[in-house]
Amino acid sequence: MSYQVEAGNSIAYELLLSFLLYKRRANLKYLYKGIGWISDVQKRLTAEFETELAEFEDLAFSNVACLLIENCPQNQQVGSFLSWLEGLTAAEMYELLAPHLREVDSQILLDLEKQRNQFVYFLSQWNEQYFQYEKVENTLKKAIHLFNKQKGQMPSTQVVEHFARGLQIEIEDMKHVIMIPSIHFSPLHTFSIFREKIFVWFPLKTEPSSIDELMSIGKCLSDRKRLEILQFLSIQKRTFTEVLKQIGGAKGNIHHHLMTLRAAGLVRVHLTGDSQFCLSTRKEFALELQEKLHSVIYPT
């Protein structure tokens, strides 16, 4: 695969991701933030806004907002991005979104102004009541600087693999990959796929020590089912259905094992289509495990 890789250098990407994570609450048990993050956030939100958030279900516009962040000429600050977005006409938003949307997402182009107004309101309140107090801007800037420094030293596929901790993009005709550092979704990666373009939020190692990471890996390796999964996936990449058939057990249990392995950096995701993926073992983790163990036993 041959595609161009660049950094998404706007803090608005993290604002968007944190908002969607709170709304969807998916995979929290595998993230550094953890399930307790929800109650921590709720303590900061007003009762009125919490009620509005609970009733707000239409996230279609939020799903494509990364395209607008990318095209905003003043996207370095949350306020300037939201002001720019609020000033766009429906025709201008259509021109920015339509060329990149897949057919399945085309309904988003209906009633853009109403969707935009709701989006701006909720993200403004989210920023005012929660996100601005997280003080993540400097951390994200340092991550982007490191990414830009290293991306020229390896092929684009290796850049994605390295920073996303196990991601191979194998979608035909994919031309652009926007790599975005993320705190809220660490240690996992997540992505949004469009025509010829994909946005990838990659994890930052901001919280766990080498001991914490060793404990996470040790937890994975102490379970027989997970070892069987790693062995099965080490031969060649497999679909979830193939893993389920080979390993056996309940679908939910296999999903849990795979997510635990992914969070520890032991399993790689291969994106092969819009909603299609395969999995394989990240054999590199054996060397990484040795290095982490060395740093604990021989601290500097």
UniProtKB/TrEMBL annotation:
Gene Ontology terms for molecular function: DNA binding; DNA-binding transcription factor activity
Positions of transmembrane segments: none
Protein name: ArsR family transcriptional regulator
A Pfam family: HTH_5
Organism: Baia soyae
Magnesium is among the record's keywords: no
Segments forming a coiled coil: none
Keyword field: DNA-binding, Transcription, Transcription regulation
InterPro entries: ArsR-like_HTH, HTH_ArsR_DNA-bd_dom, HTH_MetalResp_TranReg, WH-like_DNA-bd_sf, WH_DNA-bd_sf
HTH arsR-type domain span: 206-300
Superkingdom of source: Bacteria
